[in-house]
Each structure stands twice: as C-alpha cells, then as structure tokens.
Amino acid sequence: MSSANQAKKQRSGFIWQLLENRKASAGAILILFFVLLGLFGPLLVKGDPSAFVSAPHQPPSSEYLFGTTGQGQDVLVQTIAGARTSLAVGFLTGFAVMVIGAAVGMIAGFFGGWIDSVLSFITNVFLIIPGLPMAVVIAAYLKPGPVTIGVVLIITGWAWNARMLRAQILSLREKDFVLAAIVSGEGRLRIIFREVLPNMTSLLMSGFISATVYAIGAQVGLEFLGIGDVSVVTWGTNLYWAANNAALLTGAWWTVVPTGVCVALIGFALVLVNFAIDEITNPRLRAEGTWTRLLKSHDLEPGLSTPVVRRHGS
C-alpha cells in the first residue's frame, strides 16, 4: 500500500474513532445544545433582552424562571440572547485564528529559507507580547463591540497555532509521499493542499477547538472588564452589569450563575472534544486506555498485578 493510501486510511480511521469516543460524543452533544440554543432559543423564549419587565433583583419565580437583573430585565431572556452573540464571536474567531495560524505555519514550514525566517520572527514577536494587555490597548482605540473584540482576539491569538503547525510541517515534508510529489514535479501549493493539509486534520481540529475556548473565555473576560459595547447583550456584558450592580454583595446570585454555568459548560464541552482528539492521536494515551479496558474486563484494577475479587449481589 502506498504512503498516500495509508495516510487516507489513517484519516478515515481518525474520524470514525472520534465519532465512537465517549468524550467526543458527550462534548459534541453539549456543543450542539448551545448552538441550537443560540440559533433557536430567542424564537422559543420570546422577549426583548433589554426590556424592563419587573422590579430589579427579583429572585427566580414561576413568572421569571431565572429572576431579574439589577435593571429589572429577564435573566433567562438575556442568557439565551447572549449565547447567540458570544458563541458566534467565539466560533468565528476560533476559525479565523486557526486559518491564519495554519497559513503562516504551513508556508513557513514548507517553503523554509528566508520566508521561514521572516514569518518565524513575526510569530515570535506576537508570542512574547502579553495577550491581555495588548488586547486592552487595541480595544481602547477601536469602536467597542463584539466585532472589535473578535478582531482583537484574532490579532493576539494566531501566533501559537502558527508555531505548532510549523513544527508539524517540518516533520511532514520529509515523509515519502511528500518527497514523491516533489520529485514528480507537482507545485508546492498543490502539494500543501493535496498531500500535507489532509494529514493535519486532527491538529487543525485541536487548534480550532483550543482557539475557540480561548476566544470565548477572553471575550467574556474583556467584556466583563467593560472593554466592549455594554449595551449589546452577551454573556460578558451580562456579567459586567451583574458586577456593576453589586449582585453578589446584595445576594442576587441568579444574575451571575446562569451565565457563569453556560460559559463553564461550553468550555467543558470543547475541552472534552479536545481530550478525545488527544486520546486518539497520542499513542501513549491510546495505549493507557486500551490497557485500562483490558484490566477491567479481567476484574483487575489499574496498577495492581493480582485479581481483585468482587462480591456481587451484596
């Protein structure tokens, strides 16, 4: 079997393993839930998230399931409305960070020479600049809003992906199927898109997920600090207004907890999928999982060399 055919078989095997992995399945279900919540939630739970519907800081009740904010707005409506904006910015920013990082990393690693030197220098400059202070400075000079936050996060977040993918390209370009394509006279860009890029599926997926986690967390953090348009309903601005109205000091925990739980759950879901990718692509983790399942099937505990007799029915 040729190296190219082996690579194709490995890619298809990776996709199937990812679909069968429990961590990936659990993470995907949670992600799908939040995506559907952002897309269709405002249609199911109707209401203006900025409208003043009741007295401030009303606790959860049958009328307002998540209570009201310090301005008398419905927390449930705001949480659902904020999901759409925050997830859109997070996923789009993560995708942009992945694409820019992949482009820079692959060009630098595959072409080498002075191109590699220049792009590596630029990448290193962005890597050593502290991300949060740089984001604060950039956001201060641009029009506030979710788009500005997304642009700032793209500028400050692409370099890590570029460095990681460059290292992988340096390894892949020495593989037999890539060398064969070079000898046969195929163009470099064609080799990158036809031979190299498909063999980096798992790394690109992992980079996208990591960038999305970074984007959602950083967006919420920056907006919580007031760097953004606080009139736009997002998860970050929900937390900003809760803190601004001293929600926790006054005991109005319901204005913080729903948004906080949503941010934590979407981050947890993305990390679960990332763990699954690591488990599938990392031989050591894959071997540990295989041995653990084998030991359990023989009534053995990991780390023990003798069977553990279990009493059933007690």
Automatic annotation (TrEMBL):
Membrane topology of this protein? Multi-pass membrane protein
Q: Which PROSITE patterns match?
A: ABC_TM1
Q: Tell me which Pfam families the record gives.
A: BPD_transp_1, OppC_N
Q: Name one GO molecular function term.
A: dipeptide transmembrane transporter activity
Q: Where is this protein localized, as stated in its record?
A: Cell membrane
> Cellular component per GO?
plasma membrane
Please list every transmembrane segment annotated in the UniProt record, as residue ranges: 24-45, 87-111, 118-141, 147-165, 196-216, 252-277
The family annotation for this protein states:
Belongs to the binding-protein-dependent transport system permease family.
What's the protein here called? Peptide ABC transporter, permease protein
Q: What is the protein's species of origin?
A: Stigmatella aurantiaca (strain DW4/3-1)
